[in-house]
């Protein structure tokens, strides 16, 4: 199971445990002084980590695509 999949599952578990149905806010509305602040903080950290991994993966994909495009141009001998 990928790290991204685990992150999504962790967030969905949090949502299910806390009855969150809000589609616009993954963790629901923040309740000041709520008893679940530690769990919410951990879930928020999972979201940020999943976002960072996704950004790195997207950057790697773009870099690989650019490299392949450059290689393709050289193969066609178009004078790059």
Explained architecture:
The chain is elongated and about 60 Å long. Helix content is 68%, strand content 0%. Helix 1 (3-17) packs antiparallel against helix 2 (37-75). The mean pLDDT is 76. The protein starts with a helix and ends in a 5-residue tail after the last helix. The chain is mostly helical. The longest helix is centred in the last third of the chain and has 39 residues, at 37-75. It is built from two helices and no strands.
Low-confidence segments, ≥5 residues, pLDDT <50?
A: none
State the secondary-structure class: mainly alpha
Residue share in β-strands: under 5%
Oligomer: single chain
Structural shape: elongated
Mean pLDDT: 76
Euclidean distance between termini CA atoms = 41 Å
Portion of residues within helices: 55-70%
The number of distinct β-strands equals: 0
Tell me the number of helical segments per DSSP (H or I, 4 or more residues long).
2
N-to-C order of helices and strands: HH
Radius of gyration: 20 Å
Largest sheet: none
Which secondary structure elements does this structure contain, and how are they paired or packed?
Elements: H1 3-17, H2 37-75
Helix pairs in contact: 1-2
Gist of the model:
By secondary structure, the protein is mainly alpha-helical. Helix content is 68%, strand content 0%.
Attribute tags:
68% helix; mainly alpha; 2 helices; 80 residues
